[in-house]
Amino acid sequence: MFTLSKSPMKPIWRSVYVDVSYPFPASGAKPNDPPTLTDEMAVQIVARAKRRFDMTMKPGTKPSADSQATYMNLVRDATHDLKGFCFVAADEFESYFAQHGLKAKCVRVAPEEGGGDHYFTVVNLGSKSNSLIVDGTWRQFYSSGDLNRFRLVGTLIQLRSALQDKTKLTIDLIGAYEAGLRVVDTWKKYQAFA
User: Which of 27, 57, 98, 178 has the highest CB neighbour number within 10 Å of its CB?
Assistant: First the structure.
C-alpha cells in the first residue's frame, strides 16, 4: 500500500537552464485536450529531466556538443538510468502539460511500510476515474527488457489492464497510482515539493 505524500525537497532543479528542448505537441492538439504523447515525445521530456537532474546534482556539468541527442540516447538505451530522478521527470511532465493548458501535478507516493518513494504526473480531467496518470520512468520497475513502450499514459482502468502481468513488476505500480490519484480530491492544496 502507498500513500500520497509531500516531498521535503525544494525544487532547485527548476531554475537550471537545460539544453534539451521540449517536444512539439502532437499536431492538431488544442488546449485542455487530454495529452497525446508518443514514445519519442516522452523520451525527449525524460531526457530533458535527466539532463536537468545531472546539471543540478553535478554542478559544473557542461553542455556537450549535442546534449539533446546524447541524453535522448541515454534515456532510450539504458533502463537503469531511469532510477533516482523520477521526481525531476514527473515535475518536467507537469511543466510540459501546464504549458499546454492542462491541469497537471507531479505527485509523490510513499510505501506505508517504508522504502523508496516514487513520483509521477497526474493530469486532472475532473475525476479520479477519467484523470490520466503519466509515468515517464515506470520502466525502472519492470524486470524484463523486452517491452517496447517507453511512456505509460492512461486512466487507472487502462493502466490496470496494461500492467495485468504483475510478475514482471518490482513494485505494486497500480497501488502507487491509486494513491497518487487522491491528489484529485485535494487539487488546490497539494504541492509535491516543499
Answer: 178
